[in-house]
């Protein structure tokens, strides 16, 4: 069953944060290069004038989106999955995009998938495949994913 139309993962990295790119690649249960999925990189300037790299990966094929969701579900603790279900209404927008933020330091330093509301994180946007495209249907899909 198709769970998502697209998945976008974005993370910001400052100079010297080499582990960010490595952990980004590890979020995917397949080799991005082998699957010909690019890691887009954009340069930006922070408020303090320091250079920032913005990494972005976009998945559009079901053979990539479903394994990504399965891997995410497996790595999240039961408490974290329950938190996502409890916060479902605030994390799902009118376009049926579901937003998850994983704490960057926890993921990089301890390889722990910790849901957060702070900005220093890995941003995940999952465009939920709901037929028909209605909030109630999308909510059921999300509950099924994280139950």
Commentary on this structure:
A 5-stranded antiparallel β-sheet has the order 2-3-1-5-4. The mean pLDDT is 93. The protein has helices at residues 18-26, 62-75, 78-86, 88-91, 104-110, 135-146; strands at residues 4-14, 40-45, 51-59, 97-103, 121-128. The protein has a single domain (4-146), classed as 50s Ribosomal Protein L5, Chain: A (2-Layer Sandwich), CATH 3.30.1440.10. It is built from 6 helices and 5 strands; from the N terminus they run βαββαααβαβα. The relative contact order is 0.21.
Identify the notable features of this structure and list them briefly.
globular; 5-stranded antiparallel β-sheet; alpha+beta; 50s Ribosomal Protein L5, Chain: A; about 150 residues
Mean pLDDT: 93
Range of helix content: 25-40%
Globally, the shape reads globular
**Beginning-to-end CA distance, first to last residue:** 16 Å
CATH architecture: 2-Layer Sandwich
Order of helices and strands: EHEEHHHEHEH
CATH class membership: Alpha Beta
Number of helices: 6
Major sheet description: 5 strands, antiparallel
Strand order of the largest sheet: 2-3-1-5-4
- SS elements, strand count: 5
**Which structural class best describes the helix and strand composition?**
alpha+beta
- What is the CATH topology descriptor? 50s Ribosomal Protein L5, Chain: A
Query: Can you identify the CATH superfamily?
Result: Ribosomal protein L5
pLDDT below 50 for ≥5 consecutive residues: which ranges? none
Q: How much strand content do the residues show?
A: 25-35%
Q: What is the domain tally?
A: 1
What does the radius of gyration come to?
15 Å
């Amino acid at each position: 069953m198709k769970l998502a139309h697209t998945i976008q993962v974005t993370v910001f990295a400052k100079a010297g944060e080499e582990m960010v790119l490595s952990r980004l690649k590890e979020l995917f249960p397949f080799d991005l290069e082998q699957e010909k999925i690019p890691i887009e990189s954009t340069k930006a300037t922070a408020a303090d004038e320091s250079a920032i790299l913005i990494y972005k990966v976009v998945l559009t094929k079901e053979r990539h989106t479903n394994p990504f969701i399965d891997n995410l579900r497996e790595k999240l603790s039961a408490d974290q999955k329950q938190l996502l279900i409890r916060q479902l209404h605030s994390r799902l927008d009118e376009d049926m995009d579901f937003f998850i933020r994983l704490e960057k330091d926890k993921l990089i330093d301890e390889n722990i998938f910790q849901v957060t509301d702070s900005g220093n994180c890995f941003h995940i946007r999952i465009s939920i495949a709901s037929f028909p495209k209605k909030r109630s249907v999308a909510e059921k899909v999300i509950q099924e994913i994280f139950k």
